[in-house]
Amino acid sequence: MSDTGNHVAAAGDTGRATHGEPVPGRSSRRRLTVVSGPSGVGKSSVVSELRRLDPDIYFSVSVTTRAPRPGEVDGAHYHFIDRAMFDRMVAAGELLEHAEFAGNCYGTPRGPVERALAEGRQAVLEIELQGARQVRAAMPEARLVMLMPPSWEELVGRLTGRGTEEEAAVKARLAEAERELAAAGEFDVRVVNADVRTAAGQLLDLMNTDFESIREHHE
Ligand SMILES: Nc1ncnc2c1ncn2[C@@H]1O[C@H](COP(=O)(O)OP(=O)(O)OP(=O)(O)O)[C@@H](O)[C@H]1O
Ligand SMILES: Nc1nc2c(ncn2[C@@H]2O[C@H](COP(=O)(O)O)[C@@H](O)[C@H]2O)c(=O)[nH]1
């Protein structure tokens, strides 16, 4: 797997682990945003618009055991790896979080995210619910955003309309979607994706807001 991260420029709140890697401190972890939400809600679409709006943000590239879809590029959309490699990365502590979702494994490579945060950049993870919960436990300062569909019918329409999964996989993803939507209250903020550009703009505004004040406001 290639390393997609940039190299280290130590920040004031950065500690150092035993292997010389930077460890993000509390204030840099506030620059970490998790974008979650049910499969098909439009996370990739919104995140890609966010990338256009602010090219300085670091967008994590996950590892996955899922087969590439037509048009997906290794190292850009995902690092496509086999199960043995995935298990090795988990065992070596190389993943910030990881989960099995609808029959495939996914995880966030730790190093590139930690380096981006240490460099003072905002970082975004586009991940499912179990991973979001792991990030919350490991980095409580991170902001957790759930992207919501305008309605259940619209979600089903988007997922089936995308045409990337067989019927059984769509069913499995919709079963996960019910669980994910039931957990919406665990997130700091919920953003409805009725329109990609509007949702991306709202996400960017949230990322540029002092999040502690939002959290207090919502508690
Ligand atoms: N606001 C929107 N209005 C209409 N269609 C949308 C909107 N946002 C995304 N879509 C469409 O919905 C489908 C699913 O979007 P996308 O692949 O971005 O979802 P996702 O949440 O990243 O899915 P997954 O978690 O399965 O990877 C795509 O065909 C996309 O073009
Ligand atoms: N916990 C994690 N979830 C991830 C990661 N990368 C992607 N995902 C989520 O998995 C599902 C399915 O993705 P798909 O590309 O197969 O449609 C979706 O919710 C993604 O956001 C990750 O590193 N960790």
Automatic annotation (TrEMBL):
PANTHER family recorded: GUANYLATE KINASE (PTHR23117:SF13), GUANYLATE KINASE-RELATED (PTHR23117)
Enzyme class: transferase
Domain of life according to the entry: Bacteria
SMART domains according to UniProt: GuKc
Swiss-Prot/TrEMBL catalytic activity: GMP + ATP = GDP + ADP
Gene Ontology annotations for the cellular component aspect, listed alphabetically: cytosol
Family: Belongs to the guanylate kinase family.
UniProt region (Disordered), positions on chain: 1-43
Guanylate kinase-like domain location: 30-208
Protein name in the entry: Guanylate kinase
A Pfam entry, by short name: Guanylate_kin
Annotated binding of ATP, by residue: G37, P38, S39, G40, V41, G42, K43, S44
Gene: gmk
